Amino acid sequence: MINKLCIVGMGLIGGSLARALKVADAVNHVIAVGRDETHLKRAVELGVADSYEMSITHAVTDADVIVVAVPVGSMKSVFSELAGNIKSDAVITDVGSVKGNVVRNAVEVLGDSLSRFVPGHPIAGTEKSGVEASFAELYSGQRVILTPLEETAALATQTITQMWHAAGAEVVSVSVEHHDEVLAATSHLPHVLAYTLVDTLAQMHEHREIFKFAAGGFKDFTRIASSDPKMWHDICLNNRDSLLDMLTRFSSDMSKLTKAIEDEDSEFILKLFTRAKTARDQNC
Amino acid sequence: MINKLCIVGMGLIGGSLARALKVADAVNHVIAVGRDETHLKRAVELGVADSYEMSITHAVTDADVIVVAVPVGSMKSVFSELAGNIKSDAVITDVGSVKGNVVRNAVEVLGDSLSRFVPGHPIAGTEKSGVEASFAELYSGQRVILTPLEETAALATQTITQMWHAAGAEVVSVSVEHHDEVLAATSHLPHVLAYTLVDTLAQMHEHREIFKFAAGGFKDFTRIASSDPKMWHDICLNNRDSLLDMLTRFSSDMSKLTKAIEDEDSEFILKLFTRAKTARDQNC
Questions:
Q1: Would the ipTM clear 0.95, i.e. be above it?
Q2: Residues A52, A44: contact at Cβ < 8 Å?
C-alpha cells in the first residue's frame, strides 16, 4: 500500500495508473501535479486524483512514491525540482518511452536521490491523450519494463514492482541500452512510419478524396499517428541513435522491395510477404 | 433478387457477400467454384453456398450474376473461361483491389460479354483469409467502388449496384485510373510498409525478444501484414506504376524526416507530427 502517491503529469498514463491503484486499494492518496490547472481540477472531479498542486516542490514534500509522467524532453527539469525536496525514503520512477537519455538526466540532477530512482516504461497506451482518456484496465496483463541502475536500491525497485503488479501489469527488467534498441524497433519506428504516411497523403492534391476511400486496414495502420506530437517529438530526439539505426535498416529493406516491384521480381516479393506474414502470425 | 449467383473463388470476400445476400433474402441459389474441393465442401457445410462445382464452365451456364473473387493475377484465366459459356443476359463483376490491369484483361478476353462486365472493388476486408473467416456484416456501411467502362450496359451496372446495396454497402463510381491511384495511397502502400517492417524486425538477431515487447500499437500497425501474401503479391505487380509513384513520394518524405532527426531539427519534426495528427483526426 502506497500512502501518498504523487503523479507529475496527469494524463493517460499517470491517470490510468492512479485509477488502477485505487481500484486495487493499493494507494491512500493521489496528488496530481501539472502546469494546467483545468486539467488538474478535472482529474480531481473524475476521482482520479484526491488533490492537486501546481508546484512540484510543494506537492512532493510528503509523497512516498513520485511517478514522473511528462514527455521525456521535460524529465530533466522535473527531476531538478525533485532533488532535495523529497522525503529521504521516497521512491521516484518515470514512465518515459526512452530510458538512455532519461537516465542520463537523472544521473546529472538527482544527486543523493539517484539510489531511489527506478527508471520504468509501461508498454501500454492508446493513441489518445489526457486524463479523460485514462482507464483502470490500461495495464491489465500488459508489460512494464524497469531498467534499474547499479545505484538503484533493491527496496526502491521492489516498491515500484509492487506498484505495477497492483495495477495488473507484469514487470520485467532489462538494460537501458536493450530497452532503447527494442523500443526503437517495435514502437518508435512504427510511429515515425505512421506519421510520415499520413503526412505524405495529406500533402497530395486530392487528399480529401484519398482519405474518403480509406478502409479499416488504413485506420488501424495509422491509429498511432493520432498520438501526441510533442511526446513523440521528444521520443525521436531522445532515442535518436537507435531510431536512426532502425530507419536505416527499414529504408534499405524498402529500397530492395521497391526494386523488386520495379523489376517485377515475383519470387522476391512473394517470399518477403510470406516471411512477414509468418513472423507476425507467430509473434503477435 | 438474384436467382442464381456464381462466386468464383469462395474466400473471405466472396463468402461474406454470399452470407450478406442470404441474410437479406436477395439471392435464391449460390454456387461456389474453386480449385480446392475441401474449401468448396466447407462453404456448403457452412451454408455459405448451396452447391459447388470444380469447373467454371459447368458452374456458370445458368448463372445470372458471376462474381469473380480470385487474386487479381488469376482474373484473366477466369475471364477466358467465362467468355462464350455464360447466359446472354448474365452479368459479371469482380472484387479485385486493382482495376486497370483487371479491366485490360477483361477487354482482351471477354469478347461480347464485355458490355455486361462491371469492374468492382469492395473497400472492406480483414487480415484473415478463407470462407471460414467470412461474415454477413463485412460490407455493412462500407463502400464499394464500381468503375464501369464506356462499353458497360447501364442495366448491368444497376444489377451489381443493387447487389451491393442488398449486402449493406454504399456504392460509388469512379474512373479506373482514379481508383488505382487512390488505392495505391490508402491500401497498397500501407500493406507494403507493414510487410517490410515486420520482415525487417524478423531478420534482426534478437527478433524473438523484439516481438515480445511489442504492444497494442504495433499489433494494430502490423495487422495488415497478416494478409494473404499471394493476393498482395498480385496487387503490387498489377498496380505497379501507381504503387511505385507512392513509394517514391513516401521515401522522399521519410528521407527528409530522417535528416531532421539526424540534425535534431525540432521544429520540422514537431510540425510534421502535428500536421499528420490533425489530418488523421479530421479524416479517419
A1: no
A2: yes
Q: What one-character DSSP code corresponds to residue B83?
A: T
Any B CB within 8 A of A223 CB: yes
Tens of pLDDT, residues A154-180: 999 999 999 999 999 999 999 999 999
Nearest CB partner across the interface for A215, out of B187, B201, B269: B187
B170 and B182 inside one domain: no
A221 and B CB contact within 8 Å: yes
Give residue-wise pLDDT tens across range A4-34: 999 999 999 999 999 999 999 999 999 999 9
Alpha-carbon gap, residue B13 to B96, rounded angstroms: 10
CA atoms within 13 A on the CB side of B235: 25
Q: How far is CA A90 from CA A60, A66, A83, B169, B208, in A?
A: 9, 7, 11, 59, 37
Query: Contact at 8 Å (CB) between B235 and B70?
Result: no
CATH number at residue A214: 1.10.3660.10
Distance between CA atoms of residues B2 and B161, nearest Å: 12
Of all residues in chain A, the one with the smallest CA distance to B270 is A233
Please check whether residues A142 and A239 belong to one and the same domain. Answer: no
What's the confidence (pLDDT) of residue B208?
Answer: 82
Q: Does B204 touch chain A (CB under 8 A)?
A: yes
